[in-house]
Amino acid sequence: MFNSMSGDARVRVFARASSWIEGAAVRQLEQLLARRGVIAVAGMPDLHPGHKGPVGCAVLTDGVVHPDIVGTDIGCGMTAWRLDGELRRLRLDKAERALGRLGDRGGLDVDAAVARGVPPDVAAAHAEALGTVGGGNHFVELQTVHQLVDAAACAAEGLAVGDLTLLVHSGSRGLGPAVLARHPYDHGEGLALNTGGRAYLADHDVAVAFAALNRAVLAERAAALLGLDGAPWCDVPHNHVTLEGDRVLHRKGAAQADLGLVPVPGSRGAMTYLVRPDPRVAGALASLAHGAGRKRDRASMRGRRDKERERPNPVGNRVICADRRLAEEEAPEAYKPIADVVADLEAHGLARTVAVLKPVVTFKTARA
DNA sequence: ATGTTC
Fold first, then answer.
1. If DSSP codes are grouped into helix, strand and coil, which group holds residue A262?
2. What is the enclosing helix (H) or strand (E) of A142?
3. What are the φ/ψ torsions at residue A91 (nearest 5 degrees)?
């Protein structure tokens, strides 16, 4: 762990000295200190520069909400499901065709959304988004348990090598941006809890629940298409705000560490590490990395079609992505090695690996 | 990230 370049003790970055983190991201992290009410900032090992601010961080304030730290995709996170199936009995071509149909259907109808807890006004505007993956780094992935690292923990979870699981990474789709737009704020000042902050948080909480429901519907549909029974296992947001008294904890691309097991995925061509977080590490703000983190921005990845075609996915999973530009932007080479990021987490005691999950079929989009 | 983007 190191303090920021300015040496300000309020900023901590949880990476080993040997781990490369883009300077621009650390500068974005330091700039957060100028915002009203900021007490502490924690950078995770997947820290990288974002469009307006750093991705892979947690920010604690006293009584002030900064909606733009969380950004547009309020509630984005990871949901894992256990499936009642084994890799050795899976017919890969059939599974690939099945997951390819994830894009066929629209979302829930309004009544179904309301029945699952979505407020009627929100359902009227956004129900059809429920069960859609979205773009960017979002995906639905069929995985298999590849390696048991903590044998006792795996036994407690009933995990065996070859078991099938689902991982869903998605968010609140159009609802998050709509919530952000409804709550204007000054960039540096943010919203004090009692002058707009709580009103934002009320809408934010709806978006967080909506995002979790979106992931649940996606997992249900994926399991049904695969013809397998399944059950929810983990659901952990990494783009949201939690409140303790007047302390406001923002997470932007940082998984919440006090909700049990967390899947930490690599790129679409890399393993996922299932980890047990420790939320008590000083300065880490009960957070951990939400994935591998980009090492190259999207723009610089475009137009690399030929290189991409030459290089099969490193772990051999099939990827359903009809959108070539998206495939380029999300190429495995755009991301840091996930094993290094997890080693950073372990070096600082932020998490311990329970198991390694291997991608089998990754669904991103069926639309060109 | 986003019913995006001139």
1. strand
2. strand A139-148
3. -95, 110
In angstroms, how far is the first alpha carbon of chain A from the final one?
A: 42
The top-level CATH class assigned to A11-365 is alpha beta
**Each residue's pLDDT tens digit, A274-305:** 999 999 999 999 999 999 999 999 988 988 76
Protein CA A316 to sugar C1' B1 (Å): 28
Place of tokens 């991982």: A167
Q: How far is CA A98 from the centre of its chain?
A: 24
Between CA A341 and C1' B6 the distance (Å) reads: 40
What burial class does residue A337 get, using C-beta atoms within 10 Å of its C-beta: 0-12 exposed, 13-18 middle, 19+ buried? middle
Strand B: positions under 7 A of a protein C-beta atom: 1-4
Footprint of strand B on the protein (CB under 7 A): A 51, 71-73, 76, 128-129, 134-138, 170-171, 173-174, 176-177
Which one of A169, A238, A290, A348 is the catalytic residue?
A: A290
Amino acid, single-letter form, for residue A207: A
Nucleotide closest in space to A107 (CA vs C1'): B3
Per-residue pLDDT reduced to its tens digit, A156-191: 999 999 999 999 999 999 999 999 999 999 999 999
Query: pTM to 2 decimals?
Result: 0.96
> Which residue, among A286, A290, A300, has the nearest Cα to A328 in the 3D structure?
A300
Q: Catalytic residue at A126?
A: no
Query: Domain limits of chain A?
Result: 11-365
Closest protein residue to B4 using CA and C1' atoms? A135
